[in-house]
Amino acid sequence: MALTLYHHPFSRAAGVVWTLEELGRPYELKFVDILKGAQKAPELLELNPMGKIPLLVDGDVVVTEAAAISLYLADRYASGELAPKLDDPRRGTYLRWALFAPSVIEPGSLAQAYGWQFKPGQAGWGDHPSMLKAIDLAVAGKEYLLGHMFSIADVIFGGTLRYMVRVKSLAPSPAVTEYLARLEARPALQRADEKNAAVVKEHGLG
């Protein structure tokens, strides 16, 4: 049974397409017109009461939240290939950086951009300079987050960095620039970009 991703190219679902391309399994993109509020339709609220996408349906399984979807797919369909197995010592590093993206990079970048007032010790994302140091620690001197092994953590973490750099919410260090260049060279990412661009064209979103 093909995987179904409820998708809009201007949402975090665009990044999940990269995960699906890395997996190489059949999947269907189901367009949701978020610009017209279609994500709040009753049938979608039954699947995700948050009324948000991405939303993945895999048979009887429903998964929401972009990072969770990618981690789920890697564990179920590419364990040992795109995700370290449970007994692999690299598993901790894999989860560390995969979850660093939505829990630190995203809110930390927004806090910096909008000048949020908060106490770093009370915020899960800490302070901006520490975040930037941690990002450099993750990628400096390595091909990928796990060394020579590319993983779905690179899709989640790298995809987030790629977006933040593109919208100028984050100024990349030399190490980040080199890391992102390696990711850009991946055929699966290039195919994902093409698929997202095709949806933009099909629905007149450009």
Low-pLDDT parts are: none
Count of helical stretches = 8
Average per-residue pLDDT, rounded, comes to 97
Helicity level, as a percent range? Answer: 40-55%
CATH fold assignment of the largest domain = Glutathione S-transferase Yfyf (Class Pi), Chain A, domain 2
Question: What is the correct CATH architecture of the largest domain?
Answer: Up-down Bundle
* Order of neighbouring strands in the sheet with most strands: 2-1-3-4
* Shape annotation: globular
Q: What share of the residues does DSSP label as strand, in percent?
A: 5-15%
Highest-level CATH class of the largest domain? Mainly Alpha
Number of strands: 4
What is the domain total for the residues? 2
Computed over alpha carbons, the radius of gyration is 17 Å
Distance between the termini: 32 Å
Notable characteristics:
206 residues; alpha+beta; Glutathione S-transferase Yfyf (Class Pi), Chain A, domain 2; 2 domains
Describe this structure in words.
The chain has helices at 13-23, 42-47, 66-77, 91-114, 128-139, 152-166, 174-184, 187-202; strands spanning 3-7, 27-31, 55-58, 61-64. By secondary structure, the protein is α+β, with helices and mostly antiparallel strands. It has two domains: 3-81 and 189-202, 3-Layer(aba) Sandwich (Glutaredoxin), CATH 3.40.30.10; 91-186, Glutathione S-transferase Yfyf (Class Pi), Chain A, domain 2 (Up-down Bundle), CATH 1.20.1050.10. The protein has a four-stranded mixed β-sheet, covered by helices on one side. Helix 1 runs antiparallel to helix 6. The longest helix is centred in the middle third of the chain and has 24 residues, at 91-114. The model has no long low-confidence stretch (mean pLDDT 97).
